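R.M. (postdoc): so does anyone remember the format we settled on? I'll just put the structure tokens first.
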């Protein structure tokens, strides 16, 4: 029956509003203490440090990562998003620390797990299974996954939501936003209210496992006849708003493909990029969380396993058309058309273009030059990224021109950026130009 296969200790997830607020208070006081200590140390050595330098120390970043991992839920999810979305733009030290939020950390101890499952399935829930592994095989921001076996031998993956996560979403998002404001990382003039509202909405959707079950089933239907992908099968009789039951699919971390032959890495990324294009242009439905943990590789079948559809969302037609116009202009090598399409789609703010036209154009020229190279695009060649980072950082220093793209564009770009990061990790070579051109009717 129930069995704990691991030896790492669980740590109860704070579920009440007061308990979670206490963790934020501990985090704020710990960061403040770190600022004082680091400031004293630097002053003693003759330095005159800026407050921003004191806030973003490795010690304070470690405090933030540790406490967000403990809270799980929306707080940890936002930390993951910062870590993934910033990609090459984060300082290496901070990127390494924030990456801890993408790894397994604290999980519910058996007693807390039992209470959650009893509330969803009834007190005799163990009778449903021949075996239920109490130690999770995976732990993420919203829930943790357990392996189980039905009496007929069917192996299942059971995702169980952390207690209090759904109820704490709004407060957690507001608390993280307050921390960002207080730290001075966000300019006061930037209106992030629409982004916070959308973050809350998506996190509430991700915390609804019945909705995720629908998306899981939908992707299973869309990928019928696509042998390169595997999608788990939904088990609706065991699925509730806080428990998602699906078939257990074996696989190894997708990062293990780093040592695979070049042709295998190229094929896998070709398939994933093709999937993104279909999501954007054909289905108008996209799984917008590109966390590497959402992909697994099956060496024995040479198939890619797709997991976690909580962040799947429908896309308005205008989002896809905005990308189509932008890509059409890029493939044609038309800098002015690219700039205009980027503004129309909301990628660029008009203020940034007015103030930094030369820098914007240089960035566009770098990207166009990369796209114009013959043959497959080499994601392992990152030389151009440093140039873009330097120019983008100079624009970003002008906080008066900071701009938030439309929400749907932000989520699509998150998927595209995450897919590109994985391709870079695998050093894949893919003829992206030909793949994109198939969706841009004006380009032959």
């Amino acid at each position: 029956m129930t069995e704990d296969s691991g030896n790492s200790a669980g740590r109860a997830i704070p579920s009440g509003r007061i308990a979670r607020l206490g963790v934020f208070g501990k985090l704020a006081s710990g960061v403040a203490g770190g600022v004082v200590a680091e400031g004293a140390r630097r002053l003693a050595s003759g330095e005159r440090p800026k407050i921003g330098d004191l806030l973003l120390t490795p010690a304070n970043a470690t405090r933030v990562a540790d406490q967000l991992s403990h809270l799980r839920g929306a707080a940890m999810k936002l930390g993951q998003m910062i870590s993934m979305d910033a990609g090459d733009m984060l300082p290496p030290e901070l990127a390494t620390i924030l990456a801890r939020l993408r790894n397994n950390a604290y999980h519910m101890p058996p007693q807390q797990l039992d209470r959650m499952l009893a509330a969803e399935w009834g007190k005799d829930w163990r009778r449903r299974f021949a075996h239920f592994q109490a130690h999770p095989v995976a732990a993420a921001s919203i829930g943790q996954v357990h392996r189980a076996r039905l009496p007929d031998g069917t192996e299942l993956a059971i995702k169980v939501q952390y207690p209090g996560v759904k109820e704490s979403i709004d407060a957690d998002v507001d608390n993280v936003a307050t921390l960002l404001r207080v730290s001075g990382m966000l300019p006061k003039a930037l209106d992030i209210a629409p982004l916070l509202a959308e973050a809350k909405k998506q996190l509430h959707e991700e915390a609804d496992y019945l909705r995720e079950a629908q998306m899981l089933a939908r992707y299973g239907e869309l990928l019928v006849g696509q042998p390169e992908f595997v999608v788990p099968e939904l088990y609706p009789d065991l699925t509730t708003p806080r428990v998602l039951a699906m078939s257990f699919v074996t696989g190894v971390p997708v990062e293990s493909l780093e040592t695979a032959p070049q042709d295998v890495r190229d094929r896998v990324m070709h398939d994933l990029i093709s999937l993104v294009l279909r999501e954007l242009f054909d289905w108008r439905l996209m799984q917008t969380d590109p966390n590497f943990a959402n992909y697994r590789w099956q060496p024995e079948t040479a198939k890619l396993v797709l997991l976690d559809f909580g962040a799947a969302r429908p896309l308005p037609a205008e989002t896809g058309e905005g990308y189509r116009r932008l890509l059409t202009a890029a493939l044609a090598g038309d800098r002015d058309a690219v700039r205009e399409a980027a503004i129309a789609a909301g990628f660029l703010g008009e203020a940034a273009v007015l103030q930094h036209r030369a820098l914007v154009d240089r960035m566009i020229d770098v990207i166009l030059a990369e796209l114009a190279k013959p043959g497959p695009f080499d994601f392992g060649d990152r030389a151009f990224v440093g140039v873009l980072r330097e120019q983008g950082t100079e624009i970003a220093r002008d906080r008066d021109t900071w701009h938030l793209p439309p929400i749907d564009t932000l989520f699509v770009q998150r998927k595209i950026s995450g897919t590109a990061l994985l391709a870079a990790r695998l050093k894949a070579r893919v003829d992206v130009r030909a793949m994109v051109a198939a969706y841009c009717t004006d380009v032959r």
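R.M.: ...and that's the designed sequence above, right after the tokens. Also worth knowing: The longest strand covers residues 143-149. The two ends are 61 Å apart (CA to CA).
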